[in-house]
Amino acid sequence: MWTTTFVLTFLFFLIQLGTGFSILAIASPKLVQMCRLTKAQFVVLGFTVGASATGILFGLLSLFARDIWLQFAAMVAIACFGLAWSWPNWRPGAGEARAAATWCILSLPIALLTWWLFFGAYSSFPYADIGADVHWMKTAQEYADSGVINPYAAQSYVDLRSAVAGALAGTLGLDLLKFTWTYRFFSILFFLLASYAFVQGIYSASPRKWIAFFFAATGNTFALITNGSLAVASSVVFLGVLMSNADRKASGLSTRPALLLTVSAGATLLVAFAVNNNTFMLALLMAALLLSRILTKSGGNAGLLFLGCVWPAVLLLAHRGSYLFIPTVLVSWLLYLATVRMISAWPSPGIAFLRLLSFGLPLIIAGIVICVAGMRVGYIPPLSANDTFSAITGLILGQRIEGGGELFLGAGPQVATIELGRAMGPLFAICIVLGVAWWWMTRPVLRVPSGAIGTQTEGFAILVWSWIAGCGLSLAVLCGFPFLYRTNAIILSLFTITATEIFCQLLADPGSSSRYRRALVAAVVTLLATILVAAAYAFAWRSDLPLAGYPAFLRPTEIAVVVLLMVTALLTLARSRLVYICGLAGVLGLGVAVDRAGLSGVIRSYSYGALPDSAAVVSHYNADEIEVARWLHGNLRKGIILSDPYTLGMIQALTGAPGAYLFSNLDTVNEAVAKQAKSVVRAVLQPVEGPQRLANACRLIAPLFQERNSETFFQMRRIDALGGIMRTVRDEKPSMQKSAETPSNATVPASQEAANEQAKSTIRGILGSDENAWDLVAIITPRTISWTHLAADQRVSYFPPAEPMDPAIVDELRASPFPVPFANSRTVVVRIPCSR
């Protein structure tokens, strides 16, 4: 039942939230008032702590108790304590009930629309895009079946969904496939809460916060809470907290607190980088909370410690991308303090400098975008800055940017331009640039009663700061340094504040708007949105383009939103101030929402390639592969899976079984490992004499297994669990069997019999040969066969094959020395009995 899944998903978030509150209980409750945290900001902080900590705590509990019900009950008790303890800090008060109701009225329909535009329109249960979810689903399913969290399956960090979702699946029967649907809707609601918490820090008591929240909500491009998106969303809230703690007047600014906070945050980054261990980081976080409690009682700088050490530690615990997010937030905050000082004396030469930056930075950005477009179409020779960036990454990370590496995938101005453009959208970019230019040209000059030019208002500083900071960060992103584009959410948050100030100062503040101006703005935005939808998003120029198939999913919705946009534009002509302000905000918000959603649909080909003619949904698996996965889960509880990465990922996600090789992303398998895996599949399919065919396959499997990391050993032997949990990245291999440690480049013995015996010895060392032995099974599909014939730089289609398996291949496999325990129209399961 979907109702059960919906309730369990809500329980999932409550457990993580309550766990975070329990950890925050170490600190003094007075810190909430000292740091001026609103209730929304406190909830975001608590969830960020709990989402990161629950996986670690579940893993530690699994060391002492195998009963998953006992582990689940212990975590529920911890969560209930946290929710009860923090009740005064997060329950809406009498004066906040109206604000909470307003938030719900705005958020629920926006969340539903966002869910549909970014996920629901492209999916049809049980088919969806879970290509990026296979690792956490695999870990969750394995935990649900065994009661032990595999510390090696995540490879680099523990996904925040694995532990709690696995516990709910193993105890209350949560369907993980259904959970991937409901989880997205709750994720969007969390991001909307984070947006509200951010604007609260900028506009604590001003009605502007609702306009800013509406713009942030309709422009939200996040549809899924992952470790990275959670870290960047909480970083945005962190910026809001810093802004709420900054004195908005130059006379109240002090250099010493800002310097101490910056130094303490930098020290936290260095400690986290040296430790590189999530469990130790959680222990250090608890120690920092305890220290802040002591300082609160002694009257020390508990607030600075909390903002400078505790919140950055929470972000680093969530995701390693916080090494970028925290400095970005601090630089943005320090820039605001500098801006306030610069404009404190009016008139001053600093205003001319700010005007120059306001016009100069967008022109530089436009020049970079034009150059990138020229390189993309071939008019400008492509430039590579990898050597320059490698000097930086080599110094900081100890790794150079090499072709085919993961760092290389996130580097380059072209990647940065695509990611930033997808997040911002052309309509928002055009409107905000025109709005800033309009504001500078019509900016009123304030005069005191004596006639002299007076100081500028607070809105002046916020607008100029947010615009210059957003443009400066955009320029840094477009330089192409690896993964800087992940700060896009911070950039968009800054631009949202800019848009809010422009809207209010030019259109909403008393005496600032005329009926003609309102009608002009509404008409321009509606016309731009209609042109974009009709010419680029809802309809494709040519049906043979790779992007042509994706806009069809959104076509009815986008046309409906455009009609609603036209109706809303008529409200701007009303005489009532509240009505025309809501109408103007609705026009801008709906226009930006449909623009970003349509753009996201168009460039899905950038992620998935051309949409096949027969594809009705965006999915990398089909009904036959789901059938195989369910059969394997019910009948082969001890199996190691071998197939192409797309099929392998799907099978692992639904069975929890280990794979014969590892990968971070479906299309970035290590070339050497992929070559070995392909050779094994080809040996299974090669129609040669039976015994020799089996011997060839087993001989090729041996070097593949010799490189297999600790995950398979852990799942089979349950060894060194604590060592795995304590390390976020596990490089060394345990010495299970001496024969399994033979280097993969070892020379093959001259005798074929000796080679076969060595292969059998290696495989027995890993799989075993007793009654509890594990089985190696190969999943063969038409896509798997195509994958074995591809070159190293080629990729198979993201979408599953539409054609059935060739009956001749199925018949030949049934007659081979490899048993076929299961087969359907598109998939064949083959057991490779090397250890027998």
Automatic annotation (TrEMBL):
Q: Where is the composition biased (Polar residues)?
A: 736-759
Report the superkingdom from the record. Answer: Bacteria
**Keyword terms:** Membrane, Transmembrane, Transmembrane helix
Q: Does the keyword Coiled coil apply?
A: no
Q: Is Cell division one of the keywords?
A: no
| Sequence intervals crossing the membrane | 6-28, 40-62, 68-87, 99-118, 181-199, 211-238, 258-291, 298-318, 324-344, 356-379, 423-441, 462-483, 489-508, 520-540, 552-571, 578-594
Q: Where is this region: Disordered?
A: 732-759
Q: Which protein is depicted?
A: Blr5987 protein
Species of origin:
Bradyrhizobium diazoefficiens (strain JCM 10833 / BCRC 13528 / IAM 13628 / NBRC 14792 / USDA 110)
